[in-house]
């Protein structure tokens, strides 16, 4: 089987419904071979926050690569830092604030894969 690979710098970013800038590193609508999940890099600019939202179907994992932020998850707020991973069950309201001076960069894994249609304000 041929290995699938993408390069971050060759993936065009776009703006999601929650307000973050995202690069879809692997997504079934773009990449052959992947079927049940997606992996994206999301960037929240300093002083910005994402809209509080939820996904009816997708379970998400956020993994913080760099920067510092505040996670809102099911009404609870807590700090997130590089190396932290957060589970977001389907239907759970969530969002991120970036109060810091640097970009907050996270990896987002969704199963099933992320879709705009599965994203709604919370």
Walk me through the structure:
The protein has one domain: Jelly Rolls (Sandwich), CATH 2.60.120. Helices cover 0% and strands 45% of the residues. It has no helices and eleven strands. A six-stranded antiparallel β-sheet has the order 1-2-3-10-5-8, with no helix packed on it. Strands 7-6-9 form a three-stranded antiparallel β-sheet, with no helix packed on it. Strands 4-11 form a two-stranded antiparallel sheet. It is globular, with a radius of gyration of 14 Å. The model has no long low-confidence stretch (mean pLDDT 92).
Short structural summary:
The chain has 122 residues and is an all-beta fold. The chain has strands spanning 14-15, 21-26, 38-44, 53-55, 59-66, 69-73, 76-80, 85-88, 94-97, 104-111, 119-121.
Name a few traits of the molecule.
122 residues, mainly beta, Jelly Rolls, six-stranded antiparallel beta sheet, three-stranded antiparallel beta sheet, 11 strands, 45% strand, globular
